[in-house]
Amino acid sequence: MPKLGMEPIRRRALIDATIEAIGEVGSLDVTVSQIAERAGVSAALAHHYFGGKEELFLATMRELLVRLGEAARQGLGRARTPRDRISALIAACFSADQFEPATIAAWLVFYVRAQSSESARRLFRIYARRLDSNLRFAFRQLTGTTDAVRLAEATAAMIDGLWLRHALKDGPPDPETAVALVEDFVDDALDARGRPAS
Amino acid sequence: MPKLGMEPIRRRALIDATIEAIGEVGSLDVTVSQIAERAGVSAALAHHYFGGKEELFLATMRELLVRLGEAARQGLGRARTPRDRISALIAACFSADQFEPATIAAWLVFYVRAQSSESARRLFRIYARRLDSNLRFAFRQLTGTTDAVRLAEATAAMIDGLWLRHALKDGPPDPETAVALVEDFVDDALDARGRPAS
Amino acid sequence: MPKLGMEPIRRRALIDATIEAIGEVGSLDVTVSQIAERAGVSAALAHHYFGGKEELFLATMRELLVRLGEAARQGLGRARTPRDRISALIAACFSADQFEPATIAAWLVFYVRAQSSESARRLFRIYARRLDSNLRFAFRQLTGTTDAVRLAEATAAMIDGLWLRHALKDGPPDPETAVALVEDFVDDALDARGRPAS
Amino acid sequence: MPKLGMEPIRRRALIDATIEAIGEVGSLDVTVSQIAERAGVSAALAHHYFGGKEELFLATMRELLVRLGEAARQGLGRARTPRDRISALIAACFSADQFEPATIAAWLVFYVRAQSSESARRLFRIYARRLDSNLRFAFRQLTGTTDAVRLAEATAAMIDGLWLRHALKDGPPDPETAVALVEDFVDDALDARGRPAS
DNA sequence: AATGAATGAGCCTTCATTCAT
DNA sequence: AATGAATGAAGGCTCATTCAT
User: Fold this and answer.
1) If residue C15 lies in a helix (H) or strand (E), which one and from where to where?
2) Which pLDDT tens digit goes with each residue over B51-79?
């Protein structure tokens, strides 16, 4: 039954369906029909609203990025100290939303996509830069600039690595352990900084 | 004119071509024809020798895994202390061979493939388990068992994360910095271990 | 806000938009949406008023035919002699209205359409018959019946041919030259008639 | 049963099938599958050999043009006088090959195509220019240069017009009458030239 | 040993058309 | 009077795969 104002609803449904479908299949080899069916609409409608498969994927990536950005922003808002800010960023990356199997899978898949699609890469750069600069900024208040850069990179790498490994694990996601590993790393690294001559 | 004993030559050429092609395109969306052309043979021949695209990909993954395994084995052979063994493993992961753009891309792509292909996942498990157990074994000689597990996982995660990030960078690979980051992490972590109450 | 008496306005707008669209694209491969947009209405409305694409095309053809018919009638009204009548018909075919690029293109396109659509062919027959009989009638007053048929056919053919060739030319239409060519042909033909044995 | 050297055979079969299919349907709205089926092959093969529908159409046009060119060349070879050359060109345009219903339809359809496809237009220009220059050359030997241009254009137009009209006629083609009309036109025109003051 | 020939299956995309509002 | 919403049907194209040579 056609109603007015369906567009945002359909777009949202299609994007969610895309995440689910990619999550289930574990790759971008998902047909528009599969996605549309999951969203309860025809494939033609997906094209109608997004223009094509490529754009649907891009919109989905953007959504993923936005969600992560919001999680980070909220966490940062509640943080009081620089060390808190770092924890907030780590927590955001492993928050329930982000760590659902389908979401992890979708992230990973888009990560790879970024290798071959210029538009995808552009989107990812924005995300990477934002996370990095947030981390760097927090670290800088705890160490010198040079170390901040290093530590920010290492932290980001570990986060990504844990994501990656979770994407391949069979069992349920285990965000607590992941967070603990990164936190320990940060603690140790900052600790070592404070005691230069060991 | 058909020659005798061409099989190993062709197989090798096709596997190399697969790595190159995937590296260039940045995804598994490579046609058998493209690969075959790059190897200087017909697409039909690829099927003749491998049975199908799937098997060609699997063989290529296996090759990648073997190469990494060999790099690790060689490094471990020269290592004298447990700490040396850890460094050897890190170095192997970032050795010149492994860190060529095409290879990084191929790894990443196969990583994702593992999500949807049971056979691919099986192969990767073997690799992950071997790296993990090697790391764990070395760490266990420097820390307690519990910490060894944790540290091994964190180290492996950081390595994977650095790989991932390099896969998306535009510039030339920078293995030295990557190695330094991981080594620092290990140093700091072991350091912290030795001085429990900080 | 819906207004009353919109029907004729919309129909006219849609027909004009059809001519323009066909003229611009140079073929019948025009979507109903494109036409509707050009007319400033929704595609659904086009169906509402015409019933379908086919009927819209047919209505457009009819319009084209009517315009040509009117141009001819007006010219014939002012003609005094049989020879004048011939000139009037020629002039009508190359009158400004008919010789606009979009109109030429539309004519040509519909001409082809007539090959595959019975209804389109029927419309064209009416036009062709009317032009032919007008020409024949005029010629008959200047020559014998047999020759009149021949000359009418030749004249009509030349007119159509000149149209065709103009449809493919890049530059601006050149009705004067076209008219001159046909007039010369008629003159020469009639001349030859008068002097049978050469 | 796959054999070697099939390519030229298949190409030829596909081109012939294209002409037939277009001729039967009377428009370019022919699917590749229809054409392929008529040629006794799969649609995929058509793409394999031609790359796409567009190229298949272009190749078909080229073939049509070549056939016409050959008919003209043969006729010209046998012509002794300038007037003979003109007749030869006219005859070529209405020769049995060219005047088959399917061929006429295909010509007409491609003629229209030229309006929207740059590549098609380019091909047609070549044909038009060649026919024109041949005609002009012959006329120039019989009249002054200025008249030659005019007469060549008028002749070409009449030929095209007769083609056009035949394309829409239901009955069987009637090349003799068509040729007679054009020949009469040429005769009368040349006659008139010779007797300037009437 | 190697390949040209050939195809079936499947996907993206377009578009005319319908319907409820 | 007019339109946004929605879809079924169909077409072009790609590609892995097979087969006879």
Assistant:
1) helix C7-25
2) 999 999 999 999 999 999 999 999 999 99
